Amino acid sequence: MSTTTGTTAIHEILATRYSTRVFDADAPIDDTALNNALEAARWAPSAANSQPWHAIVARRGSDAFARIAATLKGFNSTWAADAGALVIFVAETERDGVALPWAAYDTGQAAAHFTIQANADGLATHQMGGFEAAALANEFDLPATMQPLTVVAIGAFGDVDAASDELQQREATPRTRRPLADAVLVYA
């Protein structure tokens, strides 16, 4: 199924996906949907099939979840703890002494595939850049060749009407994108 956005039709899951900040703090994470999302990430394309991404998956209530939540910055720290799980996507920037120059790009693709599959299976997601990467690396004893790139909050959608005024306002803000003509530098 496709949806028209402007003058272009894109798949409905892409057109309707959004990054919520309102999660159901009582709902357990759907393990099947979580595993499907991880499997989708596993099948993301990567340079020379190097698959340079790794994930740290922490369910709400676990020690690992609390350790990740403690590294979140600013506004992220006020809502992300309601998610059913927090997932860190980590780029392996070097393997066997050889640099993997596309690791960040490839890890981003894995995170994107994860997010789209999770949304297709009815889970809410929100990727965050507001976290202390060095603290995460320290918390999970990651070597210098393993770089945390994003933390994804994932879980059941929460009740927006029961959320704080600030969260309600952010959730009500229309989802917009800049015009395609502003994004494409050359289209020959």
TrEMBL record:
Write one Pfam family the protein is assigned to. Answer: Nitroreductase
Domain Nitroreductase, chain residue ranges per copy: 15-69, 73-155
Q: What residue ranges are annotated as transmembrane? A: none
Question: What's in the keyword line of the UniProt record?
Answer: Oxidoreductase
Q: Which InterPro entries does UniProt cross-reference here?
A: Nitroreductase (IPR029479), Nitroreductase-like (IPR000415)
Question: Keyword Transferase: yes or no?
Answer: no
Q: Which CDD domains match?
A: TdsD-like (cd02138)
Q: Which domain of life is it from?
A: Bacteria
Q: What family does this belong to?
A: Belongs to the nitroreductase family.
Q: Return the PANTHER family for the record.
A: NAD(P)H NITROREDUCTASE YDGI-RELATED (PTHR43673), NADH DEHYDROGENASE_NAD(P)H NITROREDUCTASE XCC3605-RELATED (PTHR43673:SF10)
Protein's name according to its UniProt entry: Nitroreductase family protein
State the organism named in the record: Microbacterium sediminicola
Phylogenetic classification of the source organism? Bacteria, Bacillati, Actinomycetota, Actinomycetes, Micrococcales
